[in-house]
Amino acid sequence: MIRRFAIAESSMEPALSDGDYVITVRLLSVARGQVVVFEHPHQQGFHLVKRIVGLPGEVITVADGDVAINGESFADPWTTSVTSGEASWQVSGDTVFVLGDSRTISSDSRTLGPIPISRCRRVAWRYWPRPRRFI
Question: Is 127 helix (H, G, I), strand (E, B) or coil?
């Protein structure tokens, strides 16, 4: 089943902006870089849109804006901002680690923890506004 969402935040800029509209589909398999929508774990009815960075079984470390996966530096092509601090997370077999592209304003797995795959929907395409390209 497809579902549509209005983007109401700027944490995924430049890929998605406040006022964009997207179509989502059921997430059948996970891949790094996929953009997903999921219900906020602590606010029923409030959905977030983020990008999958960490896959099941991986250890994700974020240190001063740099992401490492299982101890190896990951050249994160999506981020537009740098954050400070350092922390690590173990991603269990049925969850993913998600981050916003605009890290300084994103509420993501750094505060929410890994997100259950069963709660995620894949963004299939952005249908409004038309002129800008979805990344």
Answer: strand
Q: Which of 10, 17, 29, 50 is catalytic?
A: 50
* Domain segments of the chain as ranges: 3-128
Q: Which of 11, 102, 106, 109 is catalytic?
A: 11
Could you tell me which of 109, 115, 59 has the C-alpha nearest to residue 88? 59
Q: What is 3-128's CATH number?
A: 2.10.109.10
Using one digit for the tens of pLDDT, what is the confidence trace for 26-78?
Answer: 999 999 999 999 999 999 999 999 999 999 999 999 888 789 999 999 988 88
Q: What letter does residue 73 receive in the DSSP assignment?
A: E
The dihedral built from the CA positions of residue 7, 127, 94 and 58, taken in this order, carries a sign that is negative
Amino acid at 117: I
Q: Which residue's structure tokens are 């400070």?
A: 84
Q: What is the pLDDT of residues 99-127, one digit of tens each?
A: 999 988 888 999 999 999 999 999 999 98
Q: Is 50 a catalytic residue?
A: yes
Active site residue 102: no
